[in-house]
Amino acid sequence: MKGSTFKNMSMVLVTSLMTSLSSPQALAHDPVFGIGPHVLFKDGIDIAAEVESAKAGDGKGQAIVLDFRYGLTGDWVAGFDIPYEFKDNSTDSSNGNGDIAVFTKYRFWRKDTLGRQDSAAVMLKVITDTATRNETPSLNKGATDTIVGLTYGSEGRKWYRWASARYRFNGSNDAGVDRGDKILIDFVGGIRPTPTNYLEPDTVWLLELNGEYGQRAEIGGAEQVNSGGTEWFISPGIFWTKRNFAIKAGIQIPVYSNLNGIQQESDYRAKASFEWHM
Question: What pTM does this model have?
Fold first, then answer.
């Protein structure tokens, strides 16, 4: 009798463990270009190597980014980005360390139902002015910027959806240019064609709508004609995971552009990353 009871209890524990491992929490995702409310468990570690590429007119840029995240609690994560950049345009063709960024995200709401998790979080990111490359004073980076944001996500066994809004406070650079703040809006949908368990490879296809609205830059209170404006992108992507490893990739395709004055419109932006969750 005791052996039978122990066997039944063991089966319950194993079943419960496998159910939790195949739940949305264990397979939590974030969009490629937008942000989501996903955080880590307490003392969890997430390390990612990311490659970014972008082209606008005759200007091209690439970056390799090391991303580190640590779970302070089950609802609070913090980390940093260390980029190395490659720039190629008419005014800047230098390579070197980019601006280090530190960030944090706090999930303030979570609701679990059968096969689905809804949650919301706030985030803060500070992009320092620590790049080592030589830059010609212009409307480009050269100051410390701060991003604050709010994000919501709903993750189920088959369907995903996210929405987020961020406000980027751009600082004034060494040339005295107030670079103009920026608003970023993201709407994302995702689908898992074939539900899987934790031990099997898992694929989620994503489609994002990413919008950016930038204020005009100013010098001495005078607005700069060739600055600011609006761009929207359609961004297909994929999130592939196997246990605690993940590959995430996507490309931003411009669908609407209304930049002020004479500016180079975006041709594309692409991103791919390899993540290791510990």
Answer: 0.86
Give per-residue pLDDT as tens, 202-212. Answer: 999 999 999 99
Q: Which two tokens stand for residue 26?
A: 């264990």
Tokens of 50: 């990311």
b/e burial code for range 200-235 (CB count within 10 A of at least 16 → b): eebebebebbbbbebbbbbeeeeebeebbbebbbeb
What is the rounded (10 degree) CA torsion for 165, 101, 214, 218?
140
Residue 228 corresponds to which amino acid? G
Strand, coil or helix: what is 24? coil
DSSP secondary structure letter of residue 115: T
pLDDT (tens digit per residue) in 26-48: 446 899 999 999 999 999 999 99
The total number of residues written for the chain in this structure: 278
CA distance 25 to 266: 35
- Rounded CA-CA distance 277/255 in Å is 34
Can you tell me the distance from the alpha carbon of 223 to that of 212, in angstroms, rounded to the nearest whole number?
19
* Dihedral of alpha carbons 97, 98, 102, 107, sign: negative
Write the CATH number of the domain with boundaries 2-277.
2.40.160.40
Q: Are strands 95-97 and 266-277 parallel, antiparallel or unpaired?
A: unpaired
| Residue-range domain boundaries for the chain | 2-277
Strand blocks (E) in the chain: 45-56, 59-71, 76-88, 95-97, 101-113, 116-127, 145-156, 159-169, 177-178, 182-191, 202-214, 218-219, 222-223, 229-242, 245-259, 266-277
Tell me the pairing of strands 76-88 and 101-113.
antiparallel
Closest to 272 (Cα-Cα) out of 47, 32, 82, 31: 32
Containing H/E element for 23?
A: none
